[in-house]
């Protein structure tokens, strides 16, 4: 049961339906960071816009952003805060051609049965859902993506609390299954505390025994990384070689660490400005073909919102972007569904078990 | 890191402390199912009672039951509803010798460090707790118990929804890691639906695809088992050989299925009287040395209440009874702690992942 | 905004669609408690069966039961376990007339907009859903039902832990807003412990302070009620006059207390046989017009399964049965939806706050 | 049962215990944002430092920060990221005088019974805990604090989804029960959407009916506020007068809105730099005497970490700071406990019900 990319079916723009549609309208942004009234807002699906009689795809999309028609004819999907005064912003709030906009939800579906299947597949995912097939499919997908795609991991702060999960994730990184990592200050600090002291928040990550004055471990790690000036400098100075962050640094996997009001520290690499942080996250998202979000409502929703359901490859072909969200709490994965990110596979389980199961499925030896 | 039973340290009854304590008092039960006022109620710990100057252990204990002094001198731990008029019921509500009762909480602790370690170990178990060591210890424990102990599994209704989890559990049964099973009508019906139709509540247990009119699968399985008169007769008639219940029947593992007001059916083996059901459950609990409760608040608490922390072996030695509770919901495992069942290892995860991880740890090939 | 019953629209059986349908088929039950293969299973909606050319409603329905054609022509909805050998059981697994069976889902809907509204209303109910209108509507409904309907309350064990919630519920009972109560042994025992000792499981229900040896409170209350022989005898002997159970006894509100394997005691009124218990529950359900389930997954699902969406009044008119399920956990209320009990209003909140808000909405003074 | 401030008991520094302790040590910060090794980190409790033989209190404390000895002798509690090179940072990791540091946990406790009571009070708070007394005490506290204290509210994004909750909170603001508000972009945007369109994320906040193209409501509100340049300008231009934000603007209640990577927009007032945001939050926290956190894990933990358990009043007296955390999820309120913020009252309920119950307790008429 080896993985194969589904074929993308473009709309048939030669049909009279599309020929009859008007050109799309636009208006210039009245000020930096402000869209004109009636702006069109994107979805995660491929959207086509009729410009001078031709239907054109906005290639790098995301949810809830505007579409800017560049002077060279390119269609850029731009968050409203990033609009510049004078940008030509597409208008229109219908997506079935009425205003020259067409949202194509079914490009990857084969035949009529598929939508129903999709529907059934989706509803009522809970701790009682069967996940055996999801695991099998994910393993196949990861094998494919390692060599042909780009796998982006998104991690909550607790992921580094368990020695086994941390070793499994490090093995995934070292074996090429991670092309980018999005996280916050806490995940990185906990993981580096594990590398330096074998604890997380002062508790041993294997025996769970709390160390005397262990709450200083976290604070000391933050302070030392800050003194060293960067995570790589810290790793060198203390000769660390263990865990997720070390593996990423060793393998050159790009990290985007974004800040939150909950942070201690922060580590030097953490971006304090969350909107600059969003931009940096999206820069990694724009390359990725599979996203796996683990145990973080904040980062999962943030990433879900900026992840389209498709990617245009260099040869012009269109492939799906796969989005997984794994959390112990139904509420979190359901939030993703509520936000409209329907094309997600959600799994309700403890992420420690999830990652160890995935690593074993990929025949990785945990350290 | 192979498993070894901890040594039990009896209280030193030769000390002046114990010598100075009075004999315990008793009074007869005034009616069937009624204890005398002031009755002593047991805990899950070993409890000793001073009778005619001698401290004697109530060997088969449980929580919240009375202690009956039999004419032959035996101490039976009896639920109040099972008392008979005239039974001599121990009185007293202090457990440090004041009334001839001594509860021994620290019999398995070695030295001074242990209690603190225990304390730290216990608190704050959540989805963010590290479970790597728990898995390792459980694997070692199961290897030991397969040959030297008695492993009792307690399962919630959802356990059979996933093909992988079901296969893993069946492999555990077939390889000798299950000496008894406590469950309800739903678990058995779902599992037999899987065996007959590869669905649970009409949804394929691997592909998750809902079958047309699939809600009848459950009802038909119930009805057919009832027509056959028993689960084994049903398995024979339909030539089933797959899943948890089939494995138990094949291996002769005793099942106790108890009813609830939520049941359809029920299957013929299900005990409709819940107090008779409790008696049958306790009969299995009295033999067991490890209990593993999976994804069921009702059965977990019921079993936890009747499971003591120790077992007296035929040679008179005392060993621990290990109790695990695994659930996706912190609330459920915390309920167990609230009820006083402190000597439990609680794990917060999806039980499907749990059982597959355990099976792999035991080198079992899943079908 | 006063409450008015929606009008029920029967199907138009004079239409050619219904005329063309065949008579329904039946077969006799092959044994006590066993349905013939192909039996039809009911839903919570009104279902009509064509018998001798006439479409007839099964008046007292429930989910997942068989329909028995009595010699006198009556259609009884009977759980399979309650079938008797020779009963004429309706066959058929389609509900749009193909086999003489018609399920009428839209009887209370007015016009075309309604189904969509229903759909939107239903999905995604969580802690973040707006409940202001639900409260307002429930208050109006309860005012109506007090005098014209029958309100059945279903309560989980924790409901009596809070002095305020207990007083609010008692006020509802005393003021005529409760025509029946379904619960388990624990709810009744906790509430009576509150009446006798102002604690629940040994913890003061107002100050939350744990009493010395407080865990005996629960056991003593159980034992004393058992000695007295009944709840009313216990209330008389100890001169209690406080809380939910006392209010029910004083007002003559029927209680059905059903057992579970988790029970201590039990109290004398608790039905140990859960299938007899189901029968007793359904006897109350058959009278009710509004059901409110609070903080109990077990009793909520059990009751939901036996509650139809409609009631035939003595004058032959058909009205809705309203079903509310209130729980702090989305998982519990979603279980109700998964089970098919779609016509429920689910609210995610702490039931203590819920009941106090309802009592205030009804201008009841809490004691 | 009117509220009275507990009296603070300073340690008796005249005792030989304190006299025998050494002076505290310090070292200068080696760089901006970096503490010297061995830095002391503060707790939420009052901490005294022995300097030149005199014990002095760090007056404006918080958790996990350093203590800087200013040239004028003042002790400032400064987050490590805010240290400047050369700041004299207190060293020491014991808090019982050994190194000239004394943490005073019991200043507000009266007599010996209190600590135990505290202990019992604290553990096992869940949906099943009795909250009647907590509500009563909170009502009394709010009446007191309105005139004599400073009440800071911390709100999650979902708080504005319900018309009733929103009206209740607005009534609290308008009647003087709110001296400051901490929230994120979403809360403010949802609430302003309610003011302008009576929806939140496109769903009517009373009827729950989804509006056509309602997902644009949120985006349009963001965009319009951005065009107007500020929330007050937006309120004026669109003549809004409804909801929480409008009430705060009208009453001059200071808002601190901090950003997250999940934000759309953001509104102009939202601080994109989360560390500047922390500073602004702490500026409000430094004035407050009661903090109430509602339905937000992120803001609750962030605020909890920067909230000390005490406040030094202008007359030099010391009073408690009360911290409440209310959430539907045990996990969230338990996180607060895990982080060490022990002096919190946690309540597990839906915040909509919570706020309406509080408003009614204060005899506020909801609009």
Strand order of the largest sheet of chain A: 12-9-8-13-16-17
Describe the largest sheet of chain A: 6 strands, parallel
- Span from first to last CA of chain A? 28 Å
Multimeric state:
homotetramer
Pattern of helices and strands of chain A = HEEEEEEEHHEHEHEEHHHEHEHEEEHEH
What percent of residues of chain A adopt helix (DSSP H or I)? 25-40%
Low-pLDDT residue spans of chain A? 112-122
Number of helices of chain A: 12
The average pLDDT value of chain A, as a whole number, equals: 92
Question: What Rg of chain A do the Cα atoms give?
Answer: 22 Å
Instruction: Give the overall form of chain A.
Output: globular
Major protein interface: A-D, 47 and 47 residues
**Alpha-beta classification of chain A:** alpha/beta
- The count of strands of chain A amounts to 17
Percentage of β-strand residues of chain A: 15-25%
Topology:
4 copies of one chain form a homotetramer.
Chain A: H1 16-20, E1 26-28, E2 47-51, E3 54-57, E4 66-69, E5 75-78, E6 88-90, E7 101-103, H2 113-122, H3 132-148, E8 151-155, H4 163-174, E9 180-184, H5 185-197, E10 199-200, E11 203-204, H6 215-228, H7 231-238, H8 244-251, E12 255-258, H9 274-285, E13 290-294, H10 297-306, E14 310-312, E15 318-320, E16 322-327, H11 330-338, E17 344-348, H12 351-361
Helix pairs in contact in A: 4-8, 4-12, 5-6, 6-7, 10-11
């Amino acid at each position: 049961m080896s993985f194969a990319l589904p074929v993308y079916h473009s709309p048939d723009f030669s049909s009279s339906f599309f020929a009859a549609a008007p050109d799309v309208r636009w208006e210039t942004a009245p000020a930096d960071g402000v869209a004109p009234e009636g702006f069109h807002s994107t979805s995660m699906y491929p959207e086509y816009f009729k410009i001078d009689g031709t239907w054109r795809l906005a290639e790098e999309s995301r949810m809830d952003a505007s579409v800017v028609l560049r002077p060279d004819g390119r269609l850029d999907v731009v968050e409203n805060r990033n609009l510049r005064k004078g940008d030509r912003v597409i208008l229109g709030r219908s997506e079935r051609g009425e205003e020259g906009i067409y949202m194509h939800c079914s490009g990857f579906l084969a035949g009529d049965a598929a939508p129903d299947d999709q529907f059934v597949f989706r509803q009522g995912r809970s701790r009682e859902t069967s996940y055996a097939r999801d695991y099998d499919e994910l393993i196949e997908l990861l094998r494919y993506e390692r060599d042909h795609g780009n796998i982006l991991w998104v991690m909550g702060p607790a992921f580094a609390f368990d020695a086994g999960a941390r070793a499994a994730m490090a093995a995934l990184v070292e074996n090429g299954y991670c092309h980018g990592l999005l996280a916050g200050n806490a995940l990185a600090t906990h993981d580096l505390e594990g590398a330096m002291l074998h604890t997380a928040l002062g508790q041993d990550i294997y025996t769970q025994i709390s160390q005397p004055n262990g709450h200083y471990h976290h604070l000391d790690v933050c302070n030392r990384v800050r003194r060293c000036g960067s995570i790589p400098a810290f790793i060198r100075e203390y000769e660390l070689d263990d865990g997720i962050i070390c593996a990423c640094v060793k393998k050159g996997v790009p990290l985007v660490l974004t800040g939150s009001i909950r942070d201690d520290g922060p580590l030097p690499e953490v971006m304090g400005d969350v909107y600059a942080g969003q931009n940096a996250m999206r820069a990694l998202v724009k390359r990725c073909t599979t996203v796996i979000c683990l145990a973080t409502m904040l980062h999962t929703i943030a990433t879900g919102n900026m992840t389209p359901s498709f990617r245009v490859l260099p040869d012009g072909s269109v492939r799906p972007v796969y989005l997984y969200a794994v959390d112990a709490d139904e509420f979190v994965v359901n939030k993703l569904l509520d936000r409209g990110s329907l094309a997600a596979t959600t799994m309700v389980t403890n992420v420690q078990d999830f990652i160890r199961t995935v690593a074993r499925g990929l025949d990785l030896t945990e350290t």
